[in-house]
């Protein structure tokens, strides 16, 4: 099939995947706290409501920046499955995340600004890893595109177990699970938790939510890269990783950004860096 | 039925409550009552909220805060007054610093009586509030 078809399919179907995943997540989290939890389609109800609600723009720049955030997030996914060079995809992914920081930073509220600063710090912790991860995958499979990796004769996961483990760690941040003082997930917190979105209302918040659904789908696509011989196996692995994230989220409710920044670099350097170094030395 | 009835996000503000009603409001989130079943989220941010849920009465010091919170909420929005103090000033009504119930400052849509209001009646009040939210949305559309 033409790679462009995959790209279009991603743009259309990724929000459905991300929304359903968010719904399952909320039910799973509720069950872990011995609650019943909301209906499966709750994230879609929330999105529908946000689109119907009045949007207050504190700064007229916020909306275009957030549209850039969603747009580039969708573009990242489309380029990834559309067969564009993987390293280039990593940079577009970082750019998409940066748009959210800019949008929150244009608002003059201290909450929003602190949120933007913290998001930037976490971006700093996570983004270098994605470049390392994709570079390692390209090196191992001798391919540079998504389709190239999928049709490679080498299975990635047995070669890069350390990188996969490090990915699981970084996914905690990207899936907005931990740290609690930055995540924009739906928790009954009363603290400076969603500082990033504190001045976004109505459809502006809906854009952030949509972008997050695309992000989840992109992360799932990354996991498939590790299990490049079988897409269902990759999706199963993503389900296992996601279940682990929900568990981590519910058991480390007090992890702060300082801990996350320090531990992310230590873990990714040790696991992913060590893994890549070993590959080079053992050859 | 629109999405408003399925996703009411609540901002809880403690005016001059004795914390009795507040504990009952938080009890609604616990496994026994679990209001998240109805899509309710306790946001803590007026810009994300649809329902302003106030416990306690209005006093001289918090009038500005209550008005400010209400102004920051995007339309459509409703106000739910929880407990005897929020409805009328309660036993503090005649105190020197108390102005009275929340309706002295804001247009209250739902009154939830009780001292302290039971979680069941708070949930009932929120469901009534969803109805009011729906009507306001239709009027503005």
- Biggest interface between chains: A-B, 33 and 25 residues
Query: Which band does the percent of strand residues of chain B land in?
Result: 15-25%
Mean of the pLDDT scores of chain A? 84
Describe the sheet with the most strands of chain A.
none
How large is the share of residues in beta strands of chain A? under 5%
SSE-based structural type of chain A: mainly alpha
* Count of all domains of chain A: 1
Oligomer: heterodimer
Q: Uncertain segments of chain B of ≥5 residues (pLDDT<50)? A: none
Q: What is the radius of gyration of chain A?
A: 18 Å
Number of strands of chain B: 7
Kindly describe this structure:
- The complex is a heterodimer of chains A (283) and B (141).
- Chain A has 283 residues and is an all-alpha fold.
- Chain A has 11 helices and no strands.
- Chain A has helices at residues 3-32, 42-52, 62-81, 86-105, 110-141, 146-150, 156-159, 161-174, 203-226, 231-251, 257-282.
- Chain B has a single domain, classed as Rossmann fold (3-Layer(aba) Sandwich).
- Chain B has 4 helices and 7 strands.
- Chain B is globular.
- The chains are: A mainly alpha (283), B alpha/beta (141).
- Chain A binds chain B through residues 26, 30, 33-39, 42, 45-46, 48-49, 52-56, 186, 188-191, 193-194, 197-202, 205, and chain B through 2-4, 6-7, 29-31, 34, 36-39, 41-42, 44-45, 47-48, 50, 72, 74-76, 137.
């Amino acid at each position: 099939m033409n790679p462009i078809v995959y790209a279009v399919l991603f743009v259309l179907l990724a929000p459905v995947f991300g929304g359903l995943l968010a719904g399952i997540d909320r039910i799973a989290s509720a069950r872990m706290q011995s609650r019943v939890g909301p209906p499966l389609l709750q994230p879609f109800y929330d999105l529908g409501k946000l689109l119907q609600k009045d949007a207050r723009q504190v700064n007229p720049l916020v909306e275009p920046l957030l549209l850039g955030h969603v747009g580039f997030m969708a573009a990242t996914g489309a380029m990834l499955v559309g067969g564009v060079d993987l390293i280039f995809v990593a940079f577009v992914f970082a750019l998409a995340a940066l748009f959210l920081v800019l949008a929150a930073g244009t608002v003059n509220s201290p909450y929003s600004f602190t949120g933007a600063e913290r998001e930037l710090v976490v971006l700093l912790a996570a983004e270098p890893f994605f470049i390392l991860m994709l570079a390692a995958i390209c090196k191992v499979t001798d391919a540079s595109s998504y389709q190239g990796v999928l049709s490679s004769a080498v299975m990635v996961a047995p070669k890069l177990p350390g990188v996969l483990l490090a990915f699981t760690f970084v996914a905690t941040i990207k899936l907005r699970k931990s740290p609690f003082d930055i995540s924009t997930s739906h928790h009954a917190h009363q603290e400076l938790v969603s500082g990033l979105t504190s001045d976004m209302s109505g459809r502006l918040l809906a854009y952030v939510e949509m972008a997050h659904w695309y992000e989840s789908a992109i992360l799932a696509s990354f996991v498939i890269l590790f299990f490049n011989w079988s897409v269902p196996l990759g999706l199963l692995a993503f389900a296992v990783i996601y279940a682990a994230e929900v568990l981590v989220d519910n058991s480390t409710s007090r992890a702060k950004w300082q801990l996350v920044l320090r531990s992310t670099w230590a873990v990714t350097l040790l696991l992913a860096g060590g893994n890549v170094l070993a590959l080079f030395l053992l050859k | 039925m629109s999405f408003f009835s399925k996703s009411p996000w609540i901002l809880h503000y403690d005016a001059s409550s004795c914390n009795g009603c507040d504990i009952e409001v938080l009890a609604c989130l616990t496994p026994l009552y679990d209001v998240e079943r109805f899509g309710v989220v306790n946001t803590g941010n007026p810009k994300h909220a649809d329902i302003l849920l106030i416990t306690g009465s209005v006093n001289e010091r918090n009038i500005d805060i209550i008005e400010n919170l209400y102004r920051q909420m995007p339309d459509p929005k409703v106000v739910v007054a929880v407990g005897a103090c929020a409805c009328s000033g309660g036993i503090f009504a005649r105190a020197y610093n108390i102005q009275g119930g929340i309706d002295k400052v804001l247009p209250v849509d739902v009154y939830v009586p009780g001292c302290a209001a039971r979680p069941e009646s708070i949930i009932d009040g929120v469901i009534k509030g969803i109805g009011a939210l729906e009507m306001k949305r239709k009027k503005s559309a």
